């Protein structure tokens, strides 16, 4: 089963994508299932995990509704505000939908990532850990220290680090991202998405070799059982085509990897993590 574990759909007229502006023309249009269809054919994809791109409950409702008429959407990662006293009721509403597979915490948008260590946040994630709910963590490399501490406080959390935690690929910086990701990988319930890398590189002048150290590191630390391919389409179009995103990853996979291990990266791990 081949799965793209991280992509987005949006309709600009809905009005809750404030980060997508006319100044970003490549993204400032609707991206809907029919636009994704050529990639399903070209790469023999069986389905995708569609991830929230707006910090609103309404957008999650929109994606879940879209999934009802789109067979290729096999899972929707929702948005929840864990600071909202009613987050459990919002979760219960979403969880009643058959294609809800988890939610995403947008640490990237926090002015101070240490907010994840506050008691109400730890309590909320402890609840979801007890329920074994999959959680996506959107985090930038300079925010990893609080995430390391968070996982020590909530060791049973089933989570996946989106976009390999957005290291400074453009500058070729590896530390302290490397050491912190190794610590994160020591938690057996934490996975990592090999996604969103091209947009952290030089958009116009990247080379496949720019990503090698980052990809090989993630594959080594998390192993073939806890990594997932995600295109981050259409956001990836800022720097690369869908085909180029896949080619970058395929070139970096160790030659020693078996076909079974490649199948885990390109689908089976996502199927198991999200309980599809």
Give a description of the structure.
This protein has 276 residues and is an alpha/beta fold. The chain has one domain: Alpha-Beta Barrel (TIM Barrel). The chain is built from nine helices and eight strands. It has an eight-stranded parallel beta sheet with strand order 1-2-3-4-5-6-7-8. Helix 1 (33-42) links the parallel strand 1 and strand 2. Helix 5 (144-153) packs parallel to helix 6 and helix 6 (177-185) packs parallel to helix 7. The longest helix is centred in the C-terminal third of the chain and has 15 residues, at 259-273. The protein is globular. The mean pLDDT is 97.
Strand order of the largest sheet: 1-2-3-4-5-6-7-8
Low-confidence stretches: none
Mean pLDDT rating: 97
CATH superfamily, please?
Answer: Metal-dependent hydrolases
Please give the alpha-carbon distance between the first and last residues.
11 Å
Shape: globular
Biggest beta-sheet profile = 8 strands, parallel
Strand content: 5-15%
Tell me the helix content: 25-40%
Number of domains: 1
Structure summarized in a few sentences:
By secondary structure, this protein is an alpha/beta fold. It has one domain (3-273): Metal-dependent hydrolases (TIM Barrel, Alpha-Beta Barrel), CATH 3.20.20.140.
């Amino acid at each position: 089963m081949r799965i793209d574990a991280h992509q987005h759909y949006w309709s600009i007229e809905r009005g809750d994508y404030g980060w997508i502006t006319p100044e970003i023309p490549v993204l400032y249009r609707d991206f809907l299932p029919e636009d994704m269809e050529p990639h399903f054919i070209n790469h023999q994809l069986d389905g995708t995990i569609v991830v929230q791109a707006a910090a609103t409950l309404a957008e999650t409702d929109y994606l879940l509704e879209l999934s009802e008429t789109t067979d290729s959407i096999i899972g929707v990662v929702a948005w929840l505000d864990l600071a909202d006293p009613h987050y459990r009721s919002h979760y219960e509403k979403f969880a009643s939908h058959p294609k809800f597979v988890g939610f995403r915490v947008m640490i990237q948008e926090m002015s101070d990532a240490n907010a994840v260590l506050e008691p109400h946040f730890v309590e909320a994630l402890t609840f979801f850990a007890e329920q074994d709910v999959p959680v996506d963590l959107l985090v930038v490399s300079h925010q990893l220290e609080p995430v390391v501490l968070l996982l020590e406080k909530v060791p049973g959390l089933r989570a996946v680090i989106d976009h390999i935690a957005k290291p400074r690929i453009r500058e070729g910086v590896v530390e302290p991202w490397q050491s912190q990701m190794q610590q994160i990988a020591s938690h057996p319930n934490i996975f990592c998405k090999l996604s969103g890398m091209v947009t952290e590189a030089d958009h116009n002048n990247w080379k496949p070799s720019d990503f090698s150290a980052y990809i090989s590191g993630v594959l080594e630390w998390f192993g073939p059982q806890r990594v997932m391919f995600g295109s981050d389409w259409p956001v990836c179009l800022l720097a690369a085509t869908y085909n180029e995103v896949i080619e970058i990853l395929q070139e970096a996979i160790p030659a020693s990897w078996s076909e079974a291990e490649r199948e885990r990266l390109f689908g089976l791990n996502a199927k198991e993590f999200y309980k599809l």
